[in-house]
Specification:
The model has no long low-confidence stretch (mean pLDDT 92). The chain contains two helices and four strands. It has one domain (2-137). The protein starts with a helix and ends with a helix. By secondary structure, it is α+β, with helices and mostly antiparallel strands. The protein has helices spanning 2-27, 99-137, and strands spanning 47-55, 61-70, 76-79, 91-94. The strands form two sheets. The protein has a two-stranded antiparallel ribbon with strand order 1-2.
Amino acid sequence: MINAIQIALSGLNAASRKVDAAASNIANMTTAGALDPADGPAPYQAVTTAQSAISGNDGEPLGVESRVVPTNRPFVPAYDPGSPFANANGLIGAPDVNLAEEAVNLQIASTTYKANLKTMQVASDMQDALLDMFDRDA
């Protein structure tokens, strides 16, 4: 049952990373930059999370590893002639962040977080029930 709690803790960590990535994207969705790197800084690069299973030497599951990675989506041109990053045509680079997608990512993270908390609660309840059985037999 300790393994179930360890796996659920890694799931909680993964959900937290997903929230961090979505929050970063939402906070920086208007962080523009130059279309050409020679003209100034690049626009904000949106991020997402990548997850992979963690296994022990014997193949026993130990949880999930989650890391924040760039989405590698190209930035989109936007018209803002007043920006210091604007080119001769008034275009700047804007991050390719979809607010609806980020809202869905936040909901997925919330559901994942709740499911992992419930897993930890059930594992703890099962451990308590097992200990109660041993106490009755003694």
